[in-house]
Amino acid sequence: MPPKRVTLGFIGAGRVGTGLASSFARAGVKVVAIASRKIASAQRLAKRVRGARVCAPQEVADRADIVFLTVPDDAIEGLASSLRWRKGAACVHCSGAAELDVLQKAVADGALAGGFHPLHMFGETREPPAALAGSAIALAGPDALVEKLERLARVLDAKPLRLPEGGRALYHAAANFSGAFVIALIRETVALWGKLGIAEADALAALLPLLRGTADNVEKLGAAGGLGSAIARGDAGTIRRHLDVLAKEAPDSLELYRILSLRTIPLALAKGTLKPEAAKEITALLEKSILKSVD
């Protein structure tokens, strides 16, 4: 059941604001006010959220019990500092990296300050009804506010995740390795396959099932258990061929391959398919490639 009598407001109608406001409205939580730097964006969102009114940022702060600041990270502190906050209301940013000190003006006015960061890739188009189901949402703030934010997260079928004070930047930096950097790695493959004449659309069509299968394996078997690669098999000959061809055809990718391969070795050892002797041989091959690149 949605939290009773709580009203929400959103300042910022980009991907995050649109995704959250729409999801809360579908779950039965009352969204009463929306503001955006671009009024057209706020109007589009208001059409999707019954009962929401397009207004100025100050009116959002005046009307809503919990105001979500869904603006770029660098704009949070300036926005929060530009508004008057009601005592007992809540000012909540949706940044994964910013701490709560960027909301110090709201606290000085008597409001509660909090963080509510969905660990989710919001898309350009309309999110499906249960888009946030199962996603983690990193929370921060005083206990009284975090309890309310936990209830809001559960309304979305999401998983509340409490972070220690001062831990948001590390949490957010680390999440990139499983999010944005995965896209960068996909792009790396597409570029390398492009040298073979494979079109990007064909490459993506081939790679996405591999990506989904990898994620499924990790979900079922854990990080080490889901690993499959030449390193996991202890196939030093294949690793040598990889290093040789990258050095010749794509030297800019060689260092990235080497770093990721070295990070894969402990996982393969934990899985039990890579024997210590083979691990030493592969490590030596990878380290030798460093010396060659330096020379």
Report on the structure:
This protein is α/β, with parallel strands linked by helices and 295 residues long. The longest helix has 26 residues. Helix content is 56%, strand content 13%. The protein is elongated and about 65 Å long. α8 packs across α9, α11 runs parallel beside α13 and α12 packs antiparallel against α13. The chain is built from 13 helices and eight strands. The mean pLDDT is 94. 31% of the residues are buried.
User: Poorly predicted ranges (pLDDT <50, ≥5 residues)?
Assistant: none
Following the backbone from N to C, one meets helices and strands in this order, namely EHEHEHEHEHEEHEHHHHHHH
- Major sheet description: 8 strands, mixed
Mean pLDDT: 94
User: What percentage of amino acids are in beta strands?
Assistant: 5-15%
Major beta sheet, strand line-up? 3-2-1-4-5-6-7-8
Features:
13 helices, alpha/beta, 8 strands, 295 residues, eight-stranded mixed β-sheet
How do the helices and strands line up, and which of them pair or pack?
Elements: E1 7-11, H1 15-26, E2 30-35, H2 39-48, E3 53-54, H3 57-63, E4 66-69, H4 73-82, E5 90-93, H5 104-108, E6 112-118, E7 136-140, H6 143-155, E8 159-162, H7 168-175, H8 180-194, H9 200-225, H10 230-233, H11 236-249, H12 251-271, H13 276-294
Parallel strand pairs: 1-2, 1-4, 2-3, 4-5, 5-6, 7-8
Antiparallel strand pairs: 6-7
Give a brief outline of the structure.
This protein is an alpha/beta fold and 295 residues long.
